[in-house]
Amino acid sequence: MRKTMKRVLGGMLMCSMVLTSMTVPSYAKEAEKDTKAAGGYIWLDNDKYIEYPEEQTSAAASSTQSGYGANRLLDGNNDTRWEASWSNAPASIDVTLSAQKAEYITGIEYVSRLDNNINGTMSDYEIFVSEDGSTYEEEPVETGKVMKKLGTYFLTFEEPVKAKSVKITSDVQAASEMRLLYVPSDAKDYTELLAQAEDLGENAREHAGMDNGLWFPDTLDAFEAGLANVPKELLDTEEDIYEANRQLFELIRDLKRAQLESTVGLNGRLRAAEAALEAATVGETPLTWSQEAIDTYAKEVTAVGNTAGSQVAGTGLVADGLKTLEDAAYAFNLAQNKPAVTFTGEASQPLAYIVDGVTASHFQGRGKGENVYLELDYENMIQFESLTFQTWWATGQCIKQIKVQYKDESGNWNWVEDGKVFSMNWTTNTA
């Protein structure tokens, strides 16, 4: 059934409701953790970083809710989480990760809460370091922003920094996991990294070629030249060992990420992004975008096109391209101009959550009867075929019944299907 609507109005026949709009398709699982144990190390983020062992890490937070301690940040379980105090948490909280001794830290892995709830996730952060574990540098080693989206993020430094403790000062109120990232710096690490580099290089040389699963010969030549330049003797100081380890780490990282992979999947995602751009309309009314938002999305899509232009590319570049497209599509959805929302009941969460396209943000309201309604104003005449709600995980709090009206071209409100009461039987995360 097609109806011409200017507004959608629902009479809420229930005691409370939690509504979300439909999700944006995701091309990668939230909080996907690319862990590859090799030579005793765990490589993360498509082989870019090495994780410092969680069993040698301690965690603390300046605010904690009972039963949700900072130790949960290190338990390896994404279904548990640390949370700040529910009653008196400050706007800014310090979370500290400490190693057993000073290490060459390259950044932090941060896994947001993963319970389908965007509240309390990190958005702005500063990172401070301490070499002795107690006295911190006055200036942050890194500052930045995190997309308001559930998942895994890598807050990395331009250069490794020697530190025993790392303090993340941010607005985060809950998180599933956090880890230190580092370049191993012990003598035993040198032996292990060198053996891994030699084994990896030997295997790659046996699979030289231009096809999926192989390595370009030029890539192998560059790797072997780099390996030949790694010091093999006179590693007398910690700094000497670290520099050699750093060279080995970078050689292994780059060769792992250079293994060729088909770009067919990446091209499929790229075509979808290009179609979304083609369909986007510049404007100020609902369902349009600003020119700036379109240009920003187009820039990201074009950059990925450079990788997708060949039949094969390095696994690292392909994975990075997929993640770029996913995040860019998410941001583009958020940037779309949304309809104005009115709710005549009691609201405890922002009304904008109901039309933001993010299933992890939840509009929560309370009301009952014909005089309690939710109104969406699209400003212009639009053809509608349906009205879709997405559940929160707490299905017992979701809307149970609605009636719907639309405003026609004459400005008159009309009942959909003669005032039919639509009932909803929810299961978790269904529409």
Radius of gyration, taken over Cα atoms and rounded to an integer in Å? 26 Å
In whole angstroms, the N-to-C terminal distance is 18 Å
Please estimate the helix content. 10-25%
Bin the strand percentage. 25-35%
Biggest sheet layout:
7 strands, antiparallel
One letter per element, helices H and strands E, the order comes to EEEEEEEEEEEHHHEHHEHEEEEEE
Q: What is the β-strand count?
A: 19
Summed up, the helix count is 6
Provide mean pLDDT, rounded: 88
Structural class: alpha+beta
Low-confidence stretches: 1-38
Global geometry: globular
Q: How is this structure best described in words?
A:
It is built from 6 helices and 19 strands. The protein is of the alpha+beta class and 431 residues long. It is globular, with a radius of gyration of 26 Å.
Could you outline the blueprint of secondary structure elements for this entry?
Layout: E1 3-19, E2 36-38, E3 41-44, E4 49-50, E5 58-61, E6 82-83, E7 93-112, E8 124-130, E9 142-145, E10 152-170, E11 174-183, H1 187-205, H2 217-228, H3 238-258, E12 260-262, H4 264-279, H5 291-308, E13 312-314, H6 315-335, E14 340-343, E15 346-347, E16 363-384, E17 401-407, E18 413-415, E19 422-423
Antiparallel strand pairs: 1-16, 1-17, 2-3, 3-4, 5-7, 6-11, 7-10, 7-11, 8-9, 8-10, 12-13, 14-16, 15-16, 17-18, 17-19
Helix pairs in contact: 1-2, 1-3, 2-3, 4-5, 4-6, 5-6
